[in-house]
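User: Can you predict the 3D structure for this chain?
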Amino acid sequence: MFCEVEFLAVGEASSAGDAIIVRYGNPTNYKLMLVDGGTAKTGETLVEHLKLHFGQNVILEDVVLTHSDNDHASGLREVLNEIPVKNLWMHIPWLLSAEAIHLFKNPNWTENGLNNSIKAEYSIISELLDLANEKGIDVYYPFQGAEIGPFTVLSPTKYSYIHLLPQFEKTPEANQELLESVNFWIGKEDSSIISQLMKILQEQAQKWIDESWNNERLKDGGVTSASNESSVVMFADVGEDRRYLLTGDAGVNALRWAAEYAESRGFILQNFSFVQVPHHGSRRNVGPTILNRLVGSIQPDNSPKRFSCFVSAPKDDSKHPRKIVLNAFMRRGGNVKITAGSNWLHQGGFPPRPGYSSTTDLSLYTSVEDYD
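Assistant: Here is the predicted structure, written as structure tokens:
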């Protein structure tokens, strides 16, 4: 089977996003899936792109929303409105609240009250669910073990998602003590104005350090949001040594859960043909240990590239991708491409497509971002 992965350039400035088209099968008999839909501005462009390259009568077999953040979900409204979709895969936070109610701090929540409180914060997910029901699209949860086209969901489990849910930025206060007692406290994201100002000041005070092939400065211990840790991580092995890893905005925890499940299923890691760099190249989402486990250890300098590696990031984003992260993937054999205003295509056996050409590979950055 052939498997083509196309990253569309979405987002602008500090508002990143993902929109990934996967085509699998062969040139005369293939199916399409869409993973994430980018920002609100992406939807119309995405519909036009699908119709231009795959015909006015294009059909999407599966649409997968990796997690509920707006920069991944917003553009899907236009897609569901304009293009026939057979299956929609997404987590619906409020419909799982009854199973998570004991994990919230307020003991007086009723199931209905908590359901309504959470639903009010996820208007885009609610719109997508309404559109799916209106158009007769089947809706499924993308939990571990689910089969979506040629992909298997590696993470999250339903258990993980339920324990992450109270820690999302948009949900009511979590019972931290209880979550810590079951070793599932990630931490509630601080979205206050003071917190945002602190982040801006830290960016302005960014320091740079030297790095070389044999001197990796990336550290373990990165922490991202609970919402990011709920991202759908998917693995595909389509034969002929074509293996794929799509990661959404997954952090170290989600990637570890994914690796554990892949290993339990006997899936071959460290030998991919394509890997998505998580969360637009954020340094908080990966570390040397999990990268070694998933994609392999550092290769000797000047070794041949072993896999394609795409990262979705706006061209005018000063924070993403981090050079320290790109270097880490390059050291392990990744041929890294950044969208930065351009679409990128991994052919995966399919013929070349008009408008795509190869470019000079990125070289290792000798100066990278310092961080504590």
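Residues 180 and 340 are 39 Å apart (CA to CA). DSSP finds 13 helices and 16 strands in the chain.
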